[in-house]
Design a protein that fits this description.
One of its GO terms (molecular function) is acyltransferase activity, transferring groups other than amino-acyl groups. The chain is an alpha+beta fold. It has six helices and seven strands, in the order E-H-H-H-E-E-E-H-E-H-E-E-H. It has a single domain, classed as Aminopeptidase, CATH 3.40.630.30.
Length: 187
């Protein structure tokens, strides 16, 4: 992970940071994230619906700026034991372990919510995402120009719950301290 980088859960009030991150993605990264070309308006509409109570977004922040994100969205509402994961990392931060760290945090969160199957879809030419999925023992199936990776999540344990709580607490405290330091710099 790059120095100064922090991964933490995002809050509903930070939807604008998620939107701005997705809008900063270059054409290739945007196509990989959404499985095709999408307009700025499409991204704005997507973010308006993605920051709901059942979706968890982890962000990779550098100096308070969101540079990568992993979205965990339950399939068929909150009752199911299946979810999908989607990752996006701005070009400058790719190849530094950010995607691995985001997916690892997403898998922990899925595990602690009783999600047993995590689906990750990508384009057939998205080798980087396929390698990342394989790193976490995903089974890949190829069809219609795309690839679907499926990961079976382990059952939650007291240790996995504590790991998530500690990560969340650290992320929250760091975010508060960052916000305070930015306020002091302005005044």
């Amino acid at each position: 992970m790059p120095d100064g980088g922090l991964i933490r859960k995002m809050w509903m009030g930070e939807a604008h940071k998620y939107r701005d991150h997705l809008l900063r993605l270059d054409t290739e990264s945007r196509t990989r994230r959404f499985g095709g070309g999408v307009s700025d308006d499409c991204i704005r509409d997507y973010v308006d619906t993605s920051m709901w109570f059942d979706t968890i977004v982890h962000g990779f922040f550098v100096d308070g700026m969101l540079r990568g994100a992993a979205e965990l969205r339950p399939l068929c509402g909150t009752v199911t034991k299946e979810a999908e994961a989607a990752l996006s990392v701005e070009t400058e931060w790719q190849g530094h372990g950010v995607g691995s760290a985001l997916l690892e945090r997403t898998l922990l969160t899925a595990r602690n919510r009783g999600i047993t199957h995590l689906h990750m879809a990508c384009l057939a030419e998205n080798r980087r995402m396929q390698q990342l999925a394989r790193k976490f023992a995903a089974e890949l199936s190829f069809s219609f120009g795309g690839v679907v990776g499926e990961v079976e999540a382990a059952h939650p344990t007291p240790l996995s719950v504590v790991r998530e709580m500690v990560s969340d607490g650290h992320g929250f405290a760091t975010a508060v301290l960052e916000a305070q330091s930015r306020l002091f710099k302005v005044t």
